[in-house]
Amino acid sequence: MKKLAFLGALALPAIVVAGLALAQSAAETGAGVKSLRGVQPDVELDVEPVFHQEKQRFVRNYRLQPPLIPHSIDKYQIDMRANECLACHDWKNAGNRGAPTLSMTHYTDRDGIQTENVASRRWFCNQCHVPQADAPALVENLFHSLGQ
Amino acid sequence: MKRTDTAARPGLPRRIWRFLASPSGVISVGVLAFGGFAAGVLFWGGFHTALEMTNNEQFCISCHEMKDNVYAEYQGTIHQNNASGVRATCPDCHVPKEWGPKMLRKIKASKELYGHFVTQSIWTEQKFNEKRIDLAANEWARMKSNDSHECRNCHNFGFMDFTLQENRAAADHQTAIDGGKTCIDCHQGIAHDLPANYLDRYREVVTDLENRGVIPRASQPEVAAVSAFVGETRLD
Q1: What confidence score (pLDDT) does residue A97 get?
Q2: Which residues bind heme 1 (chain B) (predicted)?
Q3: How far apart are CA B112 and CA B62, in angstroms?
Q4: DSSP of B20-60, one letter per residue?
Q5: Do residue B172 and residue A72 have CB atoms under 8 angstroms apart?
């Protein structure tokens, strides 16, 4: 009986080491491991290039084109509560801040009534006005401006 | 046994004073001096450590009011997520670094404990949003009256390279220096969401501080001087 226990004690470390080795080889081949990013964890993924904001003033491509935004608007709050664009571009602030004023069409509500504050239908600036990045076009575009 | 001569026994304050004022009969001067010094170091270290434990982000967000509202909004803002990985945490902006003002702010903060445990004034998201404009106004008033001191712990006009800034930013910063503006005059809501009509409320805060004489009145354009310059007579 004592002899059996002794042999068992000798065998135990060997079993543990063998188990660890098996686990290690399973991890190395990645068998059974599925990564959320779609490729095996040991495959390097390239970071997508970052395209930067263009900061010049843009020529309009057609007469009624909403002007493009020549500055970064990252992290500007435009939501139900506040619109940070208006801190400079509202008619009340534009003079002090040296910013272009909103078109006066933006102070007319849908019933044609002139309002003191920007009309609610014009509240979300970036529905029409967007910044530009120096990125390649995502789809082919054959547009030609009449003026060009 | 009942004491009869109450006049012979002095009151408690006097007895404590006599005990403290009388020289020690058994402890050496060395023990008193160096022991006192060592005890002072230990006490101060302990006090400071305990204070700093209440002065970090983890402590701030141990209350759900902070964690679910302001901390959640702070995620992804420029002071939490940026190119260089430098971060400004809650106390960097909301607690002064200097000892005296820090103690004052900590004492004022006891009202926040009262609000948390007793009145539960911002306990739910709805309650928080109802009070948001008042809470923001408190911070605006603090920053306007101390010249945005906590911003300037890191951001200093003297070390800004305007040539590296966007053109409009460089121009506006120069205007701010010339006009004696402070950071919070333009940069409200950089780490937390803004409430409705925030700009009107901010202007009220500034007017109120001016009326109370906390900050100097913003200089108005001198109409007479301008009129004289352009050669017109004032029409009033």
Answers
A1: 85
A2: 60, 63, 66, 112
A3: 13
A4: HHSPPSSS-HHIIIIIHHHHHHHHHHHHHHHHHHTSSHHHH
A5: no
The CA distances from residue B74 to A1, A47, B145, in Å, are: 67, 25, 24
The residues on A that touch B, with CB distances below 8 Å, are: 55, 71-72, 75, 77, 79-82, 84, 86-87, 93, 97-99
- What confidence tens digit (pLDDT) does each residue in B43-85 have? 999 999 999 999 999 999 999 999 999 999 999 999 999 989 9
User: How would you write B164-232 as a 3-class SS string?
Assistant: HCCHHHHHHHHHHHHCCCCHHHCCCCCCCCCCCCHHHHHHHHHHHHHHCCCCCCCCCCCHHHHHHHHCC
How is residue A57 annotated by DSSP? P
A92 annotated among ligand-binding-site residues: no
In what helix (H) or strand (E) does residue A73 lie, and over which residues does it extend?
none
Q: State the DSSP code for A79.
A: S
B150 within 8 A of B96, measured Cβ to Cβ: yes
Q: What angle do CA A115, A118, A119 make, to 5 degrees?
A: 70
Contact between B143 and B151 under an 8 Å Cβ cutoff? The reply is yes
What pLDDT digit, counting tens, does each position of A39-88 carry? 777 888 787 777 888 888 888 888 889 999 988 888 899 999 999 999 99
Q: Residues of chain B whose C-beta is under 8 A from some C-beta in A? A: 76-78, 166-168, 171-172, 175, 186, 189-190, 193-196, 198-199
Task: Give every residue of chain B whose pLDDT is below 70, as ranges.
Answer: 1-7, 219-236
Nearest chain B residue to A86, by CA: B199
Domain ranges within chain A, ordered by starting residue:
86-124
Of B190, B196, B199, the CB nearest to A87: B199
Query: Is the Cβ pair A75, B195 closer than 8 Å?
Result: no
- Residue tagged 């945490």 (tokens): B89
Contact A107, A120 (CB under 8 A): no
Given an 8 Å threshold on Cβ–Cβ distance, is B193 in contact with A77? yes
Which residue bears the tokens 């979300």?
A124
